[in-house]
Amino acid sequence: MSTQTPPLAPSQAAPLRVALVGNPNCGKTALFNQLTGSRQKVANYAGVTVERKAGRLLTPAGRKVTVLDLPGTYSLAATSPDEAVTRDVCRGVYKSEPAPDLLISVVAATNLRLHLRFMLELRQLGRPMLVVLNMVDAMRKQGLDIDVPRLQAELGVPVVTAVGVKRGGAANLLAALDTPIPPAPTPLPAGTDLHHEVRRIMALCVARTSERRQALEEKLDRWVLHPVWGMCILFVLLFIMFQAVFSWAQPFMDFLEEAMKQLGDFVGTLLPSGALQSLIVDGVIAGAGTVIVFLPQILILFLWILALEESGYLPRAAFMLDKLMASAGLSGRSFIPLLSSFACAVPGIMSTRTIQNPRDRMVTILIAPLMTCSARLPVYALLIGAFIPARRIGGIFNLQGLVLFALYGLAILSALLVARVMKRRDVEEHPLLLELPNYRLPGLQSLAIELWQRARIFLSRVGSIIVTLSVIMWALSSFPAPPAGATGPAIDYSLAGRIGHIMLPLFLPLGFNWQICVALIPGLAAREVAVSALATVYSVGASEADAASQLTPLLANQWSLATALSLLAWYVYAPQCFSTLAVIRRETGSWRFVAISAGYLFGLAYGVAFLTYHITRLITG
Amino acid sequence: MTQLLIVGLLVLLCAAYWLQRLVPAATAPFWRGIAGALHNTRFLPGLRLKAERLSSPSGAQGCGGCKGCDKNGGCH
Prior knowledge:
A: 621 residues; Rossmann fold; 2 domains; two-stranded antiparallel ribbon; 7% strand; elongated; disordered N terminus; B: mainly alpha; 4 helices; 0% strand; flat; transport (chain A); metal ion binding (chain A)
């Protein structure tokens, strides 16, 4: 197959504004990343991009280009907030922003029948446009061939080929951007049947060169989408994921724990005894070091999520869970935003823009914080490590992994129950229309890059949020010094001690001590900070210098099982971090929803932690 | 004494960092001052640009101070 670059005149000097437009999951963001060097999130399912993104590039001939990456849509008749962005940008009515100079219609060569229809709809706008035939490598593997010159002639606009996920895969597009803007195509006569036009063009331009490879995918789908086996596969995948989080990560965590201990000892001997040494050892290393230890677990969790995202399995899981979601009054369309919330509630809440029904969208926004975000993992891991023995059940299952799985399950169940309560007066079922992408073997390189990005983001959080909060926590725990003749521990006289004791009456019914109360405050900035805050408070208050590196056994000795389980229950529902509250405000445009969200989660957290504490005490005596 | 001074400075810096994240409007006058001072100079162009951006509360807003969302491969 040949690639046709439009025969246009030499490049212009003026900056060019182009917009990548197309159906969901056609590879717009992969192309955007290729063109601009950006690292926007890409995945193998529809609805990853929900906002207009802008990037700049310089073409090989030196032309400046501003590229807009728009959310995918099936038509210009928008039915959800993300689709409205695309519609408005294409029509040139988006928030006082001029219309793009050139619409780049991205179509997946593997799904031409669906994508060409939207391309023809775009063409009716009468704006200059260029078609990018993306995923031509996958198309060849499917045994298809497209006559590009013929397609170009039939569409009346330049067509270039691309492979968005391969390095250099956008070279033809870059070359096309160096040429002058093509003239706007003449719209088709009013009343033209676009579906009929697509079939006509496909009959002329698309040929099958070999037998369908789809057979394997269809066989897989027969299992994966089976009402019984499909659910079993989903359950087993999730189960193994949580087992892996504990089993695979342990050696790496032991190594990091030992490294942090060595670092603390080394700095302790390097600096003279005093405030600075205490700040570095008890504040920074004890605080941030305790959280860094959980990096392997977080990366293993993300490895699974990323592999599932890339494989094309996630939309199938959404399809499988549609019935379950419907029982809670939601549609399978809420599944992807809720699943994204397992990484962090902020992008999860933003991706609710793909939900058309406004009420469904609001309910999904309100329950998204119940999904266990990765920031809660260090808290869970610390408490499970301290109180749940690392023994095997039936010789196969790791008990700690089972408890983690149960905590995630409890959060999911609670979210569905809350949704059911919120939608008790509106239980009409909305049919789920979902595009199932082709299966794809996750690329090792892209997985490695994504994991590296995750590690960088986590470490930069440790280096900024957690270190700064640990320093503040250390200062609050160290000053003021106890008065002359004081008999109690010095930390009791510190600001942190006083704040903790003021909060204690409210949280004593949950079995929390004053140290936990203090740790809850910085935990509002980011939940994992609660771990570093506990490490700092116990480290400053401890008589031994190395108490920081021994937080797990220290908690196991000082807390009762009832307190630990109560704190775990608290963190299943814990009120959100500030970032989540801010994004709820932004997405709903209302403080009312922020208040509802914070209020009901605080109530749930308090109620369930209270019950957990007292029931455990009854059972354990 | 030196140790206490260094510790005090570090704690102040961390407190300022969180003030900027949580209440950007409170730090806007400070950034306006910096931007004004650097306005007619050629020194520290990066700091000048940052100060100009942060001197208006709207320029400093992110997701509650979470500026990492949807950049570099997602959030957090």
